[in-house]
Amino acid sequence: MSGATHPIVKGWCPGAHRPMMSGDGLVVRVRPFRAELTSAQTLALCDLSQRYGNGVIDLTSRANLQLRGVAEADHPALLTALDALGLIDADPAIEGHRNILVPARRDAGGLTGRLYDQVLAALPRLPDLPEKMGFAIDTGPDACLGYGSADFRFELDTTGALLLRADGAQTARPVTEATAKAALLDLARWFAETGGGPAGRMARHLTTTSLPQAWTQTEPRTQSAPCVPGSVPEGSILGAPFGKLAADDLQTLLEKSGASHMRLMLNRLFLLVDGTPGDTPFVTEPGNPLMSAHACPGAPFCPQATVPTMDIARDLASRVSGTLHVSGCAKGCALPRAADTTLTGRDGRFDLVRNGAPWDTPCARGLSPKDLNETL
């Protein structure tokens, strides 16, 4: 569904060095290197969440972590602690651009890790890019990062050869591991030199600007079915409904599971490397309707939201078919794309969008929570 204008959103995301003020305090985003934390780092982060935040860690749509409810006076101490844990960059500018998706299922020391190192090395040499732009290294055993937000995508073709694809393009440029960094810099410079900055993202830029032929040579392999909770050779995949990781629950899980590491995944999933979850409040089996429901913090935790979201999404999750998105406002932070059923907060009530995003034209407006129970 279309017809409405996409809302104006901030051109940057909260980071560790540059947190964002929300209704419950500062939001401090932590981008773990390689989307991985040791068990010791995870336990320490849980402690920091309880000491400086509200005791709940957010697992974001880009597979990062957020501490919420941090007082401004506590931010310097929290930053020092995160640095001591090796979870942040010393340079705030690099920190702001280190938006790198990697598959949780990967070989230690394999191609994915080597490409990650190349992307890290390229960050200081990139032209001035919009801060929301990011990278995906979709070179694991299955192609699994296609739905993740990224602008520069390292992928494989059907023969296993390496490609670099501009997000929004169907085809890509063949590269090798030896030429990968140079190719990434070339594509970033092309984006900047052709005026991509105002568009903000690669896919939007490509709606008005054509790529050079060299970047449209080869198709990537087909994306696999999305990962779901359950056992995998590397350990156990678990789900966090609405991306909420209660620090005390996560501490208990890490202490009892025997996991060596925690790897962050898209779709509010995480992998316990070499871990067995046992009894836990996190989702351990596929098919749980809460994993198809999306909701931002909502009011009163976000100043732009005019409605509460979490309880309504939890109540409706098992009653609607397909994906459900309850958004506190038209930005759609929890799911910035279409869902089967989208509820958008506006002036204390909800607009209903079928098969669309929060900024699309609704089919019903001004619904109360009681109206939702009768309509859905």
TrEMBL record:
Domain of life the protein comes from: Bacteria
UniProt keyword Chloroplast present: no
A Pfam family it matches: NIR_SIR_ferr
Keyword list, A-Z: 4Fe-4S, Heme, Iron, Iron-sulfur, Metal-binding, Oxidoreductase
Domain Nitrite/Sulfite reductase ferredoxin-like: 19-84
Record GO terms (molecular function): 4 iron, 4 sulfur cluster binding; metal ion binding; oxidoreductase activity
Name of the protein described by the UniProt record: Nitrite/Sulfite reductase ferredoxin-like domain-containing protein
Origin species: Roseovarius atlanticus
